[in-house]
Specification:
Helices cover 43% and strands 14% of the residues. It is an alpha/beta fold. The protein folds into 2 domains: 8-41, no CATH class; 49-141, Rossmann fold. Residues 9-131 form the Tetrapyrrole biosynthesis uroporphyrinogen III synthase domain.
Length: 142
């Protein structure tokens, strides 16, 4: 993008997931009039009951795998678990009994930054490939 004449250009970027600091920094350095367009927001749910039920099911050994399909899911899950006093238990579940699947490298990077090891990541970051990769993981384990 450094070849583009961006001085004074109007640039609108659709925001995906969490904030991106590199692109805005670059565009502002090029003196572009930069704006973000947010189509949806990745906030914490008001009703945390389903997430806490999921954690309870993992604790009881009823969940074999947990698939993460976006980067913001990682801190959101950890925040909900911490608020309920279940972060240590969640981390224990995700470090062995429950296989951790990530849709792709961006999500995997966030999981690893949070100290969570990824067991499954598909070759191509798409939902269908994630499902197939999880199936392959369990077929190979048996």
């Amino acid at each position: 993008m450094s070849e583009l004449a961006l001085d004074g250009a109007e640039v609108v970027v659709q925001r995906y997931g969490g904030p991106d600091s590199q692109l805005p920094t670059f565009l502002r350095a090029q003196r572009a009039n930069y704006r973000e367009l947010t189509l949806y927001d990745w906030g914490l749910p008001e009703d945390r009951g389903p997430v806490l039920s999921l954690i309870n099911e993992m604790e009881q050994g009823h969940i074999d795998a947990l698939a993460f399909t976006s980067r913001p899911q990682v801190p959101n899950l950890l925040t909900i678990a911490a608020e309920a006093g279940k972060e240590d238990s969640l981390r224990h579940c995700l470090s062995g009994p429950v296989a951790v699947a990530s849709v792709g490298p961006v999500c995997t990077r966030k999981l690893e930054e949070c100290g969570i090891t990824v067991n499954v990541e598909p070759e191509h970051p798409h939902m269908g490939n994630l499902v197939l990769a999880v199936a392959d993981y369990f077929n190979d384990a048996s």
